[in-house]
Structures are given as structure tokens and as C-alpha cells.
Design brief:
Length: 176
């Protein structure tokens, strides 16, 4: 068993490396329950491309941990679950992250510094090489539209802070 028995995992967005059925099978193989709806009982949510906005808001409301599809696939690969099912997934460590809107916890330059310190690459614009878009208040509609077209993963500010290893309660130390 990979996770505690009561671990309940949901899925939002379009999965690109596997079908939803395969993901559900992997969730069960790991000894977890599958959350058919995202809510208070959901422990974790796998996020694919173009996640459902309501699911993301619910995740934020109930403090549900978000796991990007690539992270989920990598974790399952480490535990040989995908190999057993005949699925081969290559997960790239190269993330190119763009930012849109105003972040409450830091300035734009602070976000760029945090992205780079965490080992990711900053992208000032959304391109075909962008993998994630951090979305703050009053996001740029052009960046949002390009990201939706390109199947880029949207990250809300709280998840961005978790992703870079920052506190949820304030500005990152040393970043302005």
C-alpha cells in the first residue's frame, strides 16, 4: 500500500498521459479511494490540463492537496504501478512557469525569483513551451486564453506557494 487506507483522491481536468479509468485503477491499486466528486472528504486531487474551475475553488476551500498529473504519473512510476499496466510515461523535470495577475503574497519580481530559486524556469509570456501559469487577482485575459488553448496547467497562488516550498501565511523570506 502506498497511501493510508482513508486517502481519497479526486481528478479534475483532462489527463494527457493516461485515461481517467487508468488513473482510477492506479488510485485503487495504491489502496486509496476515488472521489467521484470533489469535497470535504477529498484528501488530494490530481490536476490535468484545463482543470474545472469549481473543483479548484473547492480544493482551495477545503485545503485539498493538489498533485499535478506529471507528479502523479512520476509517483506511480516510482512504485511500478504504471509498468505493471503496460503504460510508459516520461515526466519532464523542465517546468516553464508564467505568471498573470497580481499576487497577494509577493511582487512580480519576487515571484520570478521564487520560481528560479525553486529550480524552475520563468517565462514572461505564455508560449508553446510554457507548462504552468500562476494565476493571481485580475489575470490577463490574453495569457489565460493562450494557456487554455495550449492545455497549460493553471496554478492558483496558494498552490504556487506550496509548489515552491513557501509558507501559506505571507511573503517569502528574502523576496520583495
Amino acid at each position: 500500500m502506498i497511501y493510508p487506507k482513508k486517502f481519497c483522491i479526486g481528478i479534475t481536468g483532462t489527463l494527457k498521459t493516461m485515461t481517467v479509468e487508468t488513473a482510477i485503477s492506479l488510485i485503487h491499486d495504491a489502496g486509496c479511494e476515488y472521489a467521484t466528486t470533489i469535497g470535504a472528504d477529498t484528501t488530494c486531487m490530481i490536476v490535468g490540463a484545463n482543470p474545472n474551475g469549481q473543483d479548484m475553488l473547492t480544493a482551495e476551500r477545503f485545503n485539498i492537496d493538489l498533485v499535478w498529473e506529471a507528479q502523479f504519473a512520476k509517483k506511480m512510476t516510482q512504485h511500478h504501478c504504471l509498468e505493471e499496466k503496460g503504460i510508459i510515461v516520461e515526466v519532464s523535470e523542465e517546468h516553464k512557469i508564467a505568471v498573470t495577475g497580481v499576487l497577494e503574497s509577493m511582487t512580480r519580481q519576487g515571484a520570478i525569483n521564487a520560481i528560479e530559486r525553486a529550480g524552475y524556469n520563468y517565462s514572461p509570456t505564455v508560449t508553446v513551451n510554457t507548462t504552468h501559469l500562476v494565476v493571481g487577482a485580475t489575470p490577463g485575459l490574453e495569457k489565460i486564453a493562450k494557456a487554455e488553448e495550449g492545455g497549460i496547467i493553471f496554478i492558483m497562488e496558494d498552490e504556487f506557494l506550496r509548489m515552491i516550498g513557501a509558507s501559506h501565511t505571507g511573503i517569502l523570506p528574502g523576496l520583495e
